[in-house]
Design brief:
The complex is a heterodimer. Chain A contains 11 helices and no strands. Chain A is an all-alpha fold. Chain A has 2 domains: 51 residues, no CATH class; 168 residues, no CATH class. Chain B folds into 2 domains: 162 residues, no CATH class; 126 residues. Chain B contains 14 helices and no strands. In chain B, helix 1 runs antiparallel to helix 2, helix 9 runs parallel beside helix 11 and helix 10 runs antiparallel to helix 14. Classes of the chains: A mainly alpha, B mainly alpha.
Chain lengths: 228, 305
C-alpha cells in the first residue's frame, strides 16, 4: 500500500493546485524511495527517460513559423475567410475538423495535432465563426471556444485510430492477449472498434450543436447586462 | 540517417529553448529574467547535449529546473508580436497564401511519415516545420531575427507546461519500477463480487479509466488492468476478447480525456491556446468522456452476454 504514496501526492497536489512540476517530481522521488529504489537510480531513471522522450517536445521546432504567421495576420485572415462563408458556426467548424481528423485516423494517417492544426487553423476559424454570428466575442466565449477546439483534436484522434488494423492500440491489445496465451486477429479487433468510433463522432456533433446554443446565450446575456 | 536527422531536429528544438532564454534576459520588463533564462537554457541544453551526459546528471538538471518552476520564477514576460492594425493590414495584403505554410507543417509531416518510413513522422514534423519556415520567410519578407523572436514569444507563453509530458512519462517509468500497477489491480479485484459479470465489466471499464487517469496513459494501464481485473472477472466468464479487448482500451481513452496527467493531450494544448483556466480542455471534455464511458459499459455488457 505504501507504494501508492505517489498517487496520493498527485491527487492532493493537483487538487490543491500546487505547481504540477513540483508535484510530479515529489511523487516520483517519494514512490521510488518507499519502494527501495536508491536516490541515484531515481535520478538516472528521471534523466534517461527525459532524454529518451525528447520526441514529445519536438513541437518546439514548429513555434517560430507559427509565431511569424501570427505576426503577419494568420488569425485575422482565418477570421476573414470564415466570415465569407455562409451559415458557418463555431460548432460546425469543430464538427468538420473532427470528421476529417477521425477519418484520417481511421486510415492510419497522422494528419492532425494541436500544434499543427488547432492553434494555427481550427481555433481561429471557430473564433471567426462566433464573431461573424454573435458580434464581438467576449472572454468567456473565447475561453470555451479554445476548450472545444482542443477537445475536437483529441476526440477524432483517440476514437478513430483503432479502426486502423496496424494502429498502436490494436497491436497492444493483440500483444497483451498473446502474452496470456490467447491469439487474436488484428483485423477483427480493429472492426470491433467501429461502433465506438461512430458513437464518439455522434456525441461530438451533439456537444458542438449544444455548444453553439450555449455561446449564443452567453453572448446575448452579456449584451443585455451592458444594456446594448 | 534517420538518427542523424532526428538528432538535428532535437538540436533545433533545443535552440528554440536557448533563444527563449536569451530573449527572457533581454526583456527589460521581465520580473525574473535570470531564473526564466536558466530554466529554458537548461531545457534546451538537455535537448542538445543530454544524450552525451550520464542519466543521473540529466536527472539533477531536471530537479534544478523543477525547483525553478516550483518557485514560480519561470514566467512569460512582456514580449509582444505586431499590433492588431499591422496584422490586419498584412492579412489583407498576403491573403489566403498565409495558410500555405500553416498547412505545410502537417502535410509534410504526414507525407514523410507515410511514404518515407525510413525517416518517420518525427523527422517529417521537423522537415515540415523547416520548409514552412522558409515559405513563411519568403512570403512575409520578415527579418531573420523574427524566427528567434516569435519562437521565443510562443515558447515563453506556453511556459513550464511544455516539459510536463516528458516528466510524466518519467514518473510512469518510476511507478512501473516500483510496481504500483499490481497494487491497484489487486485492490480493485478485492472488492468485485464473484460470479457477477456486470460488476466485473463495470470494474474493468472504470479500472481502465481510473488507472489511465493516474498514469496519464491508457497503454500503460491496459496490460495491468486486463491481467488484474479483465481476466478473472470478465474473460473467465466467456466474454470474447476480440470484441471486448479494444473496448477496454478506449474506456481507458475516456480517462485520458479527464486527466492533467495526460499533459500532451490536455495541458500543453491549453497552454498553446493561452486559456485562462489551465484545465479548460479537461472541462470541455469531461461530459463527453463520462457519457462515452457509460456507453462503453453498456456496449461491453451487450457483447459479453
Amino acid at each position: 500500500m505504501i507504494k501508492l504514496i505517489g498517487i496520493l501526492i498527485i491527487l492532493i497536489g493537483f487538487y490543491k493546485k500546487y505547481n504540477p512540476i513540483a508535484v510530479v517530481l515529489t511523487a516520483g522521488i517519494a514512490t521510488g524511495l518507499v519502494s527501495g529504489i536508491g536516490f541515484m537510480q531515481i535520478l538516472d531513471v528521471l534523466g534517461t527517460t527525459f532524454v529518451n522522450t525528447r520526441y514529445m517536445s519536438l513541437f518546439l521546432i514548429t513555434l517560430p513559423v507559427i509565431g511569424i504567421l501570427e505576426r503577419y495576420g494568420l488569425k485575422e485572415r482565418s477570421v476573414m475567410l470564415i466570415k465569407s462563408m455562409k451559415s458557418v458556426t463555431s460548432g460546425r467548424v469543430i464538427i468538420i475538423y473532427t470528421f476529417f481528423r477521425e477519418l484520417a485516423a481511421v486510415f492510419g494517417l497522422r494528419l492532425g495535432g494541436h500544434v499543427q492544426f488547432v492553434r494555427p487553423l481550427v481555433y481561429p476559424m471557430a473564433y471567426g465563426a462566433a464573431e461573424k454570428n454573435l458580434g464581438q466575442v467576449n472572454e468567456e466565449t473565447d475561453e470555451l471556444i479554445k476548450g472545444l477546439s482542443a477537445a475536437s483534436e483529441n476526440y477524432g484522434n483517440f476514437f478513430g485510430q483503432n479502426v486502423f488494423p496496424a494502429a498502436g492500440g490494436v497491436l497492444l491489445v493483440v500483444g497483451t492477449f498473446e502474452a496470456m496465451g490467447i491469439n487474436l486477429v488484428p483485423m477483427e479487433v480493429a472492426k470491433a472498434s467501429i461502433p465506438i468510433a461512430v458513437i464518439a463522432f455522434v456525441y461530438c456533433i451533439v456537444q458542438s450543436l449544444l455548444f453553439d446554443k450555449k455561446i449564443t446565450n452567453i453572448q446575448s446575456t452579456q449584451k443585455i447586462e451592458k444594456g446594448v | 540517417m534517420q538518427n542523424i536527422l532526428l538528432e538535428t531536429m532535437y538540436i533545433l528544438s533545443g535552440l528554440v529553448g536557448i533563444a527563449a532564454a536569451f530573449h527572457a534576459l533581454r526583456d527589460k520588463n521581465h520580473p525574473h529574467p535570470k531564473e526564466t533564462a536558466a530554466f529554458w537554457g537548461i531545457f534546451g541544453g538537455i535537448f542538445i547535449f543530454g544524450k552525451y551526459l550520464p542519466g543521473y546528471i540529466n536527472g539533477i538538471l531536471i530537479i534544478v529546473i523543477g525547483v525553478l518552476a516550483a518557485l514560480n520564477r519561470v514566467v512569460e514576460g512582456s514580449m509582444k508580436t505586431a499590433d492588431e492594425d499591422k496584422r490586419e493590414a498584412s492579412a489583407i495584403k498576403i491573403g489566403n497564401n498565409l495558410f500555405i505554410p500553416a498547412l505545410t507543417i502537417g502535410v509534410v509531416a504526414f507525407i514523410v511519415g507515410q511514404y518515407i518510413p525510413s525517416l518517420g513522422a518525427l523527422v517529417g514534423l521537423g522537415l515540415g516545420s523547416l520548409i514552412a519556415t522558409g515559405l513563411a520567410m519568403v512570403m512575409t519578407k520578415t527579418e531573420v531575427q523574427n524566427i528567434s523572436f516569435e519562437g521565443s514569444r510562443l515558447l515563453l507563453s506556453v511556459g513550464t507546461a511544455a516539459i510536463l509530458p516528458q516528466l510524466l512519462t518519467a514518473l510512469g517509468a518510476l511507478f512501473n519500477a516500483a510496481g504500483v500497477g499490481q497494487v491497484i489491480a489487486t485492490g480493485i479485484g478485492g472488492v468485485i463480487p464473484e460470479g457477477n459479470l456486470l460488476a466485473g465489466i463495470i470494474a474493468y471499464c472504470l479500472g481502465m479509466a481510473i488507472f489511465t487517469m493516474i498514469m496519464g496513459n491508457a497503454f500503460a494501464a491496459f496490460a495491468v488492468i486486463t491481467a488484474g481485473i479483465g481476466m478473472p472477472f470478465v474473460y473467465a466468464y466467456g466474454a470474447n476478447p476480440t470484441a471486448i479487448g479494444i473496448l477496454a482500451l478506449t474506456a481507458g481513452y475516456c480517462g485520458t480525456l479527464m486527466t492533467p496527467m495526460a499533459a500532451n493531450f490536455n495541458v500543453v494544448p491549453a497552454a498553446l491556446l493561452e486559456t485562462t483556466n489551465k484545465n479548460r480542455v479537461i472541462i470541455a471534455q469531461a461530459p463527453f468522456a463520462l457519457v462515452l464511458l457509460l456507453t462503453h459499459i453498456v456496449l461491453m455488457y451487450m457483447w459479453a452476454i
